[in-house]
Amino acid sequence: MEKKSSDALGLRALRPFGFYEFFAGGGMARLGLGAAWTCLFSNDFDAKKVASYRANFFPANEMHHGDVALVQPTQLPGQATLAWASFPCQDLSLAGNGKGLSGNRSGVFWAFWKLMTQLRSEGRRPPIIALENVSGLITSHNGEDLTNLVGALSAEGYRVGAIALDGALFVAQSRPRVFLIAVARGVTMPKGLVAKVPNPVWHPQSLQNVVEGLSPKVRKDWLWWKLPMPRNEAPHLLDIIEREPQGVKWHSAAETKKLLSMMTPGNLLKVAEAKKAGTLQVGTIYRRTRNGVQRAEVRFDGVSGCLRTPSGGSSRQLVMLVDGDIVRTRLISPRETARLMGLPETYILPERYNDTYHLTGDGLVVPAVSWIEQNIIRPVALSAQEFLDKSSAPLPLELLNG
Q1: Pairing between strand 158-166 and 176-184?
Q2: In degrees, to the nearest 5, what angle opens at C-alpha 43 toward C-alphas 41 and 46?
Q3: Could you read off the pLDDT of 215-244 as tens digits, one per residue?
Q4: 2-231+360-400, superfamily in CATH?
Q5: Alpha-carbon distance 363 to 366, whole Å?
Q6: Positive or negative, the Cα torsion across 368, 370, 373, 374?
Q7: What are the sequence ranges of the domains in the chain?
Q8: CA angle at residue 226 from 390 to 123, to 5 degrees?
Q9: Residue 132 has pLDDT above 80, yes or no
Q10: Which of 172, 195, 266, 340 fits a disulfide with 237 by CB distance 3.0 to 4.6 angstroms?
Q11: Is the overall model pTM greater than 0.70, yes or no?
Q12: Cα–Cα distance measured from residue 171 to residue 234, given in angstroms and rounded to the nearest whole number
C-alpha cells in the first residue's frame, strides 16, 4: 500500500492535472496540452477518428466511442481540472449551412454543456472549460450564437474570454480559429493574465462588438485574456513539403496544364513570378467556384491554405512546385497535412488518404494549443488546485494512468 501511494504521488507530480476531452478526433488537444495533463476521459462519435486516437495513445481505455448526448456523468471519472471541447464547426463555417448553434452538427455543443451542468450539480464541475471552433462562431447570426454561448457559461458560474488566433503563427498553414477559456468563479486569477482592454491582435473588432452587446450581468464575467506573441518563427511551406511524396502521385503534364488553364490572369502572374525567382518555389492550390466557374487559386507566400475536410463539396488542397520553367502539381500528401497541423513525425496516420485528410482537416494545430496551455490554461490550473482541493478527493491511481 505504501508503494502504491508513493507511485501515485510521483505520477501526480509529473502530470498533476486531469482533463476530459470531448470531440477528441485524433487527440490533437491532448498532444497540445502536453505531459502535465492526464486524460481521464475522451469521446468522439467518428469510428475512424477513434481508431486513430487509440492507435496513437494505446491502449486509450479512457476513449469512449459514441454520441456525446448519450454520455452520462457516471462515465466521467474523478474530478477534472479542465474540460476541452472542439465541437463541430460545420454549421458555423463559411462553407456551412448557416444554422449556427441550432444546427444538427454544431448544435451538439449543447449536449456537451448539459453534461457539464450535471457535473456541477454533483459538485464536480471542472474549474476550467476550453472551447475551440472556427472564427465564424464570432459572427454567426450576427453574434447571437456567441452571445448565447457566453451567457450559458456565465449562468453556470464561469468567467470567460476568447482569443482569435491564426495557426500560421505556429505552422505553415493559415488556420484562423477562436478559443474560449472559461474559469469558474472562486478560482483566484493569476496576475498578468487578464487585461482591462482588448488587444486587437487577439480580439478583433467583430469580437469586441459581440462583447459590447452582452447584458451588463454577463459582461461582468467577460475576460480580456493577455497572450504574448510566439517567440519562434513558424516553418515555411518548403520545410514541410516531401520531395518524394508518400501516398500521392505527381500529376501528368496534361493535368497540370488543365489546372493552369483554370487560373485567372492574376493567379497566372503568380506562377510566372515564381518561375523567375531563381530558386525552388512551392505553393498551394484550391479549386473554387467563382460566379459559376471553377477556378484554381494559388498562393506562394510560404503558407498553405486552411485544410478542410473533403466532405460537403470542399476540394482537396494541391501542391505546386516551380523550379524555373518546370511546374509540377499533385495532391498534398498525408504526412504533409499532418505537418501542417504540427503533429509529430511519429504520429500514426490512417492508411487511407481520405481518412487522413478528414482527420487532419478537422483537427487542431497542436502548437497553438500548447501556446495557450502554457500562457493561460496552466497558470489558471495551478491556481485552481486550491479550488479543487476544497471540492474533491485526490484521484485514485488507476485514473492517473492515462
Answers
A1: antiparallel
A2: 155
A3: 999 999 999 999 999 989 999 999 999 999
A4: Vaccinia Virus protein VP39 (3.40.50.150)
A5: 9
A6: negative
A7: 2-231+360-400, 249-332
A8: 20
A9: yes
A10: 172
A11: yes
A12: 5
